[in-house]
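Internal ticket #5521
Category: modeling
Description: The requester needs a full-assembly model to guide mutagenesis choices. All entity lines are attached below as received. Residue total reported by intake: 371.
Assigned to: D.W.
Attached entities:
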Amino acid sequence: MHEFSITMNVLNIVEENAMELNAEIVHEIEMDVGELSGVDYDALNFAMQHTKKSELLEHANLVINRIPAKARCKACKHEFDIKDYYTACPDCNHFDHDIIQGKELRVKAIKID
Amino acid sequence: MCDTCGCGQTNNPVTFNKPEEENEPVQHDHSHGQPHDHPHDHSHGNVIQIEQDVLSTNNLLAERNRGYLEAKNITTLNMVSSPGSGKTTLLEKTIQNLKKELQFFVIEGDQQTMNDANRIHATGAPVIQINTGNGCHLDADMINKAIKNLDVADNSILVIENVGNLVCPSLFDLGETYRIVIISVTEGDDKPIKYPTMFHTSDICIINKIDLLPYVDFNIEKAKEYALRVNHHLQFFELSAKSEEGMDKWYDWLKSQA
């Protein structure tokens, strides 16, 4: 359950930014989370429900943008969708590829008043 | 647009002020008392773009650790595995056999107990135990504090034995030179594709307990093939820390790092 410590990091980032902007309340936290980020969406949601206890954050909704994973084959440069690390290139059957999308784990935006 | 409360005005956020304050804005109450006869959006708030990586604090601190360790010419190994793969036994044997040639410092990570630190202490290597309580991994901040506490010597080898867990520690860079994932032949040979993130982020894979191969169904070639599918650049060592079979290659590699 590293999602709890991930959540603590998320809330620190949100709180820091919200306080800098003199926000009184955070309505929404928008995150980009890649399918290969190593974070489970449900666990992240669950952890968030149980950690946002401060007055500033307790009403904040978590919105997760799921970013599908894409790879570029190192052998033939073909770009393709992947769901895991061990899918071969559909064009040349090579396993060596770079993940070019899907490892995102970031706080994209917050909605505040 | 609602003139009563201002909602729907994108550039004019709702404000809350007490009546005695200057320029009295309307005290905001969503039970307006009078019914509205026009539709409007009641979602409030200004959207502020943040675009900040969630692990940025850990990653920055890990880079600080890395810089400090590189400057002191300390080779740092982050050992990760499931519980029970034999990390501590491997480390005990390694220190016992190489301590005349290499200087070892050890950071032990476990949820609880001093057991592993006591075992390493018995080998004579300086060691510090981090007990994470409920935590499932070590992070760069813990390592930063432990390094200061341990006073690691220049030109030495620092081994970090992470919390036994094949999932969570994979996301947390500690500032190590090499990440070493250990599997034992008593586990399934499909571990690399079941827990790919750890294998994807590791540099070296040690397959331990090979003395037990005749008694288990573990297919070592299959395990390596799976691991290479996930990470093409993995370097393998097949050994048994208990019988010491295959340990020479591991020792040679360690000596080449010093």
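Resolution: model delivered.
Comment from assignee: The beta strands of chain B are 46-53, 75-81, 104-110, 127-131, 157-161, 178-184, 204-208, 235-238.
Ticket closed.
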